[in-house]
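Researcher: Here's a chain I'd like modeled. Treat it as a single chain, no partners, no ligands.
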Amino acid sequence: MERSPEDDQAIPKAGIGLLGMVFALFFASIFLFYPAWKTSQAKKWTTTFCRVISSELAQTQSSRSTRKIFKAEIRYLYFFNGKEYESDQVCFLHFGSNHSERPKALVKRFPAGSMQNCFVNPEFPAEAVLDRDFNGNVWIAGFMLLVALFGGIQFVRALKEETW
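Model: Modeled as a single isolated chain. Structure tokens:
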């Protein structure tokens, strides 16, 4: 039985669908599953006082565009089991944004010189976080899950079209 040109197109469609699904699930895991897992772990961590030693809004400019990137850069000191530690982890998914509202709100919420609660991993005290709530960029993860769903649908459709 001879293969038609349509049969030859089914294989690339399946590959593209599978690749899209794997790519999207990988990024969804970074933006959704990892922060959710860390958040659930941090609920068991020890609460301790910390002192914010610096809190500022940092601006950088992408080398590839004129767009500014804003990030809250916050450092704090805390003591755990008699030892002093320093950290800059604000939350479990913290990176720059081209919108300044959230970074500005974090700088205002955690001003330099203030005393705050931070949450320390008792098994690894060098790991601490100021905000252990799940406030990740869920919209990014949602988009990636939609891409994964679309990739999965394309993969299944291409397989159904395949004639071996």
